[in-house]
Design a protein that fits this description.
Number of strands: 43
Strand content: 35-45%
Keywords: Copper, Metal-binding, Signal
CATH architecture of the largest domain: 7 Propeller
Largest sheet: 6 strands, antiparallel
Strand order of the largest sheet: 6-7-8-9-16-17
Organism: Albibacterium bauzanense
Subcellular location: Cell envelope
Main location: other
InterPro entries: Cupredoxin, N2O_reductase_N, Nitrous_oxide_Rdtase_Sec-dep, Nos_propeller, NosZ/Cyto_c_oxidase_sub2, WD40/YVTN_repeat-like_dom_sf
Bound molecules: [4Cu:2S] cluster, dinuclear copper ion
Oligomer: single chain
Shape: globular
Radius of gyration: 26 Å
Structural class: mainly beta
CATH class of the largest domain: Mainly Beta
C-alpha cells in the first residue's frame, strides 16, 4: 500500500514559518541590486522594449501587459472582470462575454496565462487565461489585445490547474481545484470520500480560428488539482498534473491535507484519450455551461448555453492515467525544454524531485507499481525518479528553465530564486526576492526554446519596497538578469492585482501581427453608421435605436429629441476614424448603465432607459482633438 506516514512536527514548523514571515526589512534589501542595473533596464524615450510580458492580475480578474526590460505598464487587458477603462462588460457588445450558466459574473480571479504554441514554441497568436472562481477559460486575440472567447467548465470548482496547453495548442486543459459532485447535485459534505470527485477537461482549439470547445472531460479521483504542464518532445502526448490532498480531507485542509509524506503528480496520456474519443468511445453526459464568443467582424458577442460533454469510462481511464508519488503537496509541475525531466515542487518538501519521462514509460511497461490509489496504478517513486535536488530551499513553488540546461525554482518560505543544474542537480546560485516569490517567468521558460536573458519574480508580499499607500500596498515583481552564472537583481516594479503566472515573448512576434484600426468598410455590426448622412433615430414602439456617428470633432446626431421617459434607448455609436489610436468615448449625464469607449472603425452600444424628463448633455470622454470639448450634444427627454 502507498506510504502515508505522518510527520506532524515537520509540518507544524513549516506552518509556523509560513504564517510568521517577513515582518521586517532585511539589511540586504537595498544592496542586492547589481552595479549597472539601471543601464540594463533603461529603454530610451521613443524606443521599444525587447519583450512583451503578459502578467496575471490575480484577484483583479484582468491581465497586465508590460514591456521588458523597462517594466513599463503598457495596458491592462480586461478578461474576467468588468473594466471601465476599456468599456469592457458595460457595452451591449461585451456584456455577453461575462455570461455564465449562473448569469452575469462581473468579477473573477485570474491565475494563469499561456501563449499559444506551435511545435512547443510560443507563436504569439493568442493568450489563454483561467478564471478560478466560476471556472472558465478565456482566449485573448493578440492582434487586437481583446478577449474574444470565454468557455465555462462544468463539474469543476476553483479552476486552478488551467489553462495550460499542449505543444501545438491542440488542447487547453482545465483541472478542478475543489473536488465536487456533478453540478447541481448535493450530498452531505462528510460523504466527501464517496461522493466527491475530481475532473480534468480538455478543451480543443481550432487551428485556424482559435475557437474552443470542450472535447472531453475525465472524471478522476477526489484530489485537489493544483497545476499542470504539457509534455513535449519525447513526452509529447502526455500531460502532468500536480495534486494534493491524498488524505481526502474536507475540513481544516491546512493541517488535514498536509499529513501524507507524498501526494501525486498525475500523468495523463491525452493522445490515447483523444484516440478513444475519435473512435466513438466517448460517453455523453448532460451538463450546463456557457460558451461566449466575440465576433471581430460584427463587433458583437454571443452567449450560448451548451448541455453535453463526452467522458470516458473508469476502465478506459485506468489505461490512461498513472500516479507518480511526489513529496508533500506538490504545487508546480514543470517540464524541462527537452521534455525528459519533470520537476515536482512540494510546498512543504525539503527536497526537489526530478522525474524522468523515459523511466515513467519503462515503469508503465514493466508494471512497476507501488499499489493503487482509487483503482489507479501508482508508479514506484524510485523507479521513475531521475534524482533529487537536496536542500534547495523552503517552500518550492514553480520552476522555469533557461537555454543552458539550468532550472530556476521559486521558494516562497525562504523567499528566493534558486538556480540549479538539470544534469547533476547541483545548486549554482541563489538570489533573495522581496518578498515571498510565487511564480517566476523566463521568456519561453516553459517552452522548447527558452531564452537565458531575464527572469521575473512575481512576489506575494510587498511590505517596505515602495512608498506606503495605506493598509494595502501594490503587489510587486522583480526583474533579474540571468545571463551570467550569478543572477542579478535589476528592478522592482508594481503589478496590478496579485501576479501569478506570466508569459514573456519577444516583442517582434506580437508586433508583426498587431492591428492598428478596424476597417470601417468591413464593419458588419447590424447597427453600424458608416456615413454621417445615415446617422438617425429610429423608433419601434418603446424601443429607440440611435444610429450615431463620431469623427473629430462632432457627434451625429448632436441634438436628439422625441425621447420619452420609459423608452428603451440604444445608442449605437460608430467611431468613423481610420487613424491608429483615435478612440472616442461616449457619456450621457445620468445614464446609470454605462459609458462607452469605441475604437477606430468599431461600433459599440450603450443602453439607456431615461427615468426623468429633462435635458441630458452627452459628450466624448476621450481627448481626441483640439476641439474635443466641442464634441458634445443634447438629448431632450419628454414625459411619458
Ligand atoms: S498559483 Cu499563484 S503562486 Cu494560483 Cu499559479 Cu503558484
Ligand atoms: Cu472624441 Cu473627444
Amino acid at each position: 500500500m502507498f506510504n502515508s506516514t505522518k510527520k506532524m512536527f515537520a509540518l507544524a514548523s513549516a506552518l509556523a514559518i509560513l504564517t510568521g514571515l517577513n515582518s521586517c526589512k532585511p539589511k540586504t534589501a537595498g544592496t542586492a541590486v547589481s552595479a549597472g542595473a539601471a543601464e540594463k533596464v533603461y529603454v530610451a524615450p521613443g524606443e521599444y522594449d525587447e519583450y512583451y510580458g503578459f502578467v496575471s492580475g490575480g484577484f483583479s480578474g484582468q491581465l497586465a501587459v508590460y514591456g521588458y526590460p523597462s517594466a513599463r505598464l503598457l495596458k491592462v487587458l480586461p478578461v474576467f472582470s468588468v473594466d471601465p477603462e476599456k468599456g469592457y462588460g458595460y457595452s451591449e457588445e461585451t456584456i455577453p462575454l461575462l455570461n455564465t450558466s449562473h448569469g452575469f459574473v462581473p468579477w473573477d480571479d485570474l491565475h494563469h496565462l499561456q501563449i499559444s504554441q506551435t511545435d512547443g514554441i510560443m507563436d504569439g497568436r493568442w493568450v489563454f487565461a483561467n478564471a478560478n472562481n466560476t471556472p472558465r477559460v478565456a482566449r485573448i486575440d493578440l492582434t487586437t489585445f481583446k478577449t474574444v472567447e470565454i468557455i465555462e467548465i462544468p463539474n469543476s470548482a476553483g479552476n486552478h490547474s488551467s489553462p495550460f496547453i499542449t505543444e501545438n495548442t491542440e488542447y487547453v486543459v482545465a483541472g478542478t481545484r475543489f473536488s465536487v459532485p456533478d453540478d447541481g447535485v448535493e450530498y452531505p459534505i462528510h460523504t466527501y470520500k464517496e461522493n466527491f470527485k475530481g475532473s480534468i477537461s480538455f478543451i480543443s482549439v481550432d487551428k485556424t480560428t482559435g475557437n474552443m470547445d470542450i472535447a472531453f472531460q475525465l472524471e478522476v479521483p477526489a484530489l485537489n488539482f493544483d497545476l499542470s504542464h504539457s509534455g513535449k518532445g519525447p513526452s509529447s502526448g502526455w500531460f502532468f498534473f500536480s495534486t494534493y490532498n491524498t488524505e481526502k480531507a474536507y475540513t481544516q485542509l491546512e493541517v488535514n491535507a498536509s499529513q501524507n509524506d507524498k501526494d501525486f503528480i498525475m500523468a495523463v496520456n491525452w493522445k490515447k484519450a483523444e484516440e478513444l474519443i475519435k473512435a466513438g468511445k466517448g460517453i455523453k453526459k448532460t451538463v450546463k455551461y456557457a460558451h461566449n464568443k466575440y465576433n471581430e467582424e460584427t463587433h458583437t458577442a454571443s452567449s450560448e448555453i451548451k448541455t453535453e460533454i463526452l467522458t470516458l469510462t473508469p476502465d478506459m481511464l485506468r489505461e490512461i492515467c498513472y500516479f507518480i508519488p511526489c513529496p508533500k503537496s506538490p504545487h508546480g509541475t514543470d517540464v524541462d525544454p527537452s521534455g525528459e525531466y519533470i520537476v515536482g515542487s512540494g510546498k512543504l518538501a525539503a527536497l526537489l524531485p526530478v522525474f524522468a519521462f523515459s523511466k515513467i514509460q519503462k515503469a508503465i511497461d514493466n508494471k512497476d507499481f507501488d499499489g493503487q490509489y482509487d483503482g489507479f496504478n501508482v508508479l514506484k517513486y524510485e523507479s521513475v525518479l531521475y534524482g533529487e535536488v537536496e536542500k534547495p530551499g523552503l517552500g518550492p513553488l514553480h520552476t522555469e528553465f533557461d537555454d543552458k540546461g539550468n532550472a530556476y525554482t521559486s521558494f516562497f518560505l525562504s523567499s528566493e530564486i534558486v538556480k540549479w543544474n538539470l544534469k547533476d542537480l547541483k545548486i549554482i546560485d541563489r538570489s533573495p526576492t522581496f518578498y515571498s516569490v510565487g511564480h517566476l517567468t523566463i521568456p519561453g521558460g516553459d517552452t522548447r526554446k527558452p531564452s537565458g536573458k531575464y527572469a521575473v519574480a512575481y512576489n506575494k508580499i510587498t511590505k517596505d519596497r515602495y512608498l506606503p499607500t495605506g493598509p494595502e500596498l501594490t503587489q510587486s515583481a522583480q526583474l533579474y538578469d540571468i545571463s551570467g552564472d550569478k543572477m542579478q537583481l535589476l528592478l522592482d516594479f508594481p503589478t496590478i492585482g496579485e501576479p501569478h503566472y506570466s508569459q514573456i515573448i519577444p516583442a517582434e512576434t506580437i508586433m508583426k501581427n498587431s492591428k492598428k484600426i478596424y476597417n470601417l468598410e468591413e464593419n458588419k455590426h447590424p447597427y453600424v453608421t458608416k456615413n454621417e448622412g445615415d446617422a438617425r433615430v429610429v423608433r419601434d414602439g418603446k424601443i429607440v435605436h440611435v444610429y450615431m456617428a463620431a469623427i473629430r470633432s462632432h457627434l451625429a446626431p448632436d441634438n436628439i429629441e422625441g425621447i420619452h421617459v420609459g423608452d428603451e434607448v440604444y445608442f449605437h455609436f460608430t467611431n468613423r476614424e481610420q487613424d491608429w489610436d483615435i478612440p472616442h468615448g461616449f457619456a450621457i449625464k445620468g445614464a446609470n448603465t454605462a459609458e462607452l469607449l469605441v475604437m477606430p472603425g468599431e461600433t459599440q452600444t450603450l443602453k439607456w432607459t431615461p427615468k426623468q424628463a429633462g435635458i441630458w448633455p452627452m459628450y466624448c470622454t476621450d481627448f481626441c482633438s483640439a476641439l474635443h470639448q466641442e464634441m458634445s450634444g443634447y438629448i431632450r427627454v419628454s414625459p411619458a
